[in-house]
Amino acid sequence: MRRKEKTRIKIENKKILRRTWKEFFIKAITSIMMRGILLIIPIWYSNAIDFASKGNFEKAYHIIIIALLVYIGYYIIESINSVFYWKLYNRLYKRYTKLATYSTFQNSLYSLSRFSLGEYENILNNDIDIICSFYSNGVIRVVQIFEIFIIFGYFLSINLFVFGLTAFICFMMILVYALCSGKIQKLNSYRKMKLDKKTATIQEIFLGIKEIKGLHVLDYINGHMKEKSIDYLNAYAKYDCFVVNVKVFVLAMIQSARFILVFFGLFLMSKGEMTVGTIMLIYNYYQKIVDNFEVVNTVSIELQNLKVSFSRFNKILEYSHNQEDNGNTKISNFKGNISFQDVLYGNRNDPILNVVNFTIPANQITVITGKAGSGKTGIIDLLLKLNQKHNGEIQIDETPIEQIDGRLYYNLISSVRKIPSFFDGSIKENLMLVEQDFNKIVEICKKLQIHDDILRLSKGYDTPIISKEDNISNNLKQLIAIARVFLKQSKIMLFDEAISVLEKESSQIVMNLLQELKGDHTIVIISREKEIVQSADQIIVLDHNEIAEVGTHRKLLKNKNVYYDLYGG
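Now predict its structure.
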C-alpha cells in the first residue's frame, strides 16, 4: 500500500472513530466497572474462606452477601454494556458502509473493474463486519488486557516466584503470537480470496439460471461450484487449524504454570507462609489470565484480520476521487453547451476516443452514430465521469466539468442505457427515487402512453421490477427507465441506445416528446436507427474512434462514403 493510500484510509478511519466517541466512552466506563467487579469478587471469596477457616463465620456470611449484591450489579452493568456494544457497532457499520458506497460512486469504471462482484460483496458485508466488530469489542478487550498487569501487581505483592513465573510465561506467549501473526494474516488473505471466488460462482449460477437450463450445463456448473467450495473449505481449514494450534499451545503452557504455582502454594501453606484463600485466589486469577490471554490470542488474530480487511476495503478508497469536493464552480444558470477538445480516452495505444473535437449545442437533439466499437458509449461514460480521459478537456458552457461542483453537476445531467438497472422495489418506488410527487409520475407515464399498461399489471404501480424476470415486458421496462430521466428534468439528457431498442411505436412517442423538450434541454442520443438519426438537429459520426462527420442529416447524405459505410447502399 502506497503512503498516499495509507494516509487516505487512516484519515477516513480516524474521522469515523472520532464521530463515535460517545459510544466508545460509555462502553469503556461500563467495561471498566464490569471487569473491576470480576477482579474484586475473588478477593472477597478468598477473605470469606480465610475467615471461615478461622471460625469467624459471621464475617464470612457478610462478605458472601455483599459479593452476591455486587454480582447482581455486575449483570445490570453487563446489560448496559451490551446495549452500547450494538449502538457502537451499528454507528460504525453505517459510517463504513456509507464511506464504501460513496467511494464506489467516486471510482471510475476502470478502477471498479479490478473487483469481482463476489469480492465487492464480501468487502461490504464481511470486511466491514470485521472492522466494526474489532473496534466494538476492542474497548472491553483493552480493559481485559490491562487486568493482566493488575494481576501481575498482586502476584508481586504475594511472592516473587509467583510473579516471575507468570511474567515469563506471558512474555513467551506474546512472543509466540508475534512470530505466528504473519502466517495467520497470509492464511486469512488466502481464505478470503477463495471465498470471493466461491461467492462470485454462486452469483453466476443465480444470474445465469436461464442459460444453465437452456444449454443444459448443470453438470459442468455443479462441478465448477464443487471445485470452488472445496478450495474455500481447504483454505479455511488451513487457517483455522493453524489458529487453533497456536491457541492450544499457548493455553497449555499457561495451565502448566497454573498447576505449578498451586503446587508451590501448597508447599508454602505447609510452612505456614500462605493461606488457603490466597491459593484459591491465585488459582482463580490464573483462570482470568487464561481467559485474558485467550483475548490476547483473539486480538492478535483479529488484528491480522483487520489488516486484511482494511487492505481490501482500501481497494474501494484508493482510486476514488471525491467528485463533490474537487469541483467548486457553481453556475446558477446552465445553458447546456457541451464541447470536447482534443480528448484522448481509453488505452493510449488503442484508444476508445482518439483526440476528438466536437461541440454539442444546447436546445437541440444531437445523435451520435457510428459502427459498433467506434467509441460512441465512451462519450457518455466521460460525461457521466464514469472514467477519466488521458488528455484534452470536456467543458459545459466553457467550464471544465472537473471544476463544476459535484452535486450541481449530477443534477445537471441524467442518462438511460440500453439495458437499464432498477433498484429492488416497485415501479412506483423506482420512479419516486427522482420525483416524490406521484401526480407528476402519472402525468409523465401518460405522456409516454404507459400509464394504462402499468395499471394492467398485477399490482399496478406497486408491481415489483425484477430485472431478470419477465413479469414486465422489456419494452415497458425501457420506457419506465426513460420516464425517470423525464421526471428528473435535467438540463442535459443522455440516451445510450435506449431509444433504439424500443418498439417502433414507443420509439416515435419518445422522439416526439424529446422534440418538445429540446427547447430547454440538451439532448444526446446514441443510435444507428435511421429514423432517429434523421430526426436529429445535429449528427456526429464516429469511425475508428475518430470524428468522421459532424453536421445535419442533409450533410450526411452528401458524404456518401460515410453514409454508405453506416447503412450500405
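The longest helix spans residues 218-270.
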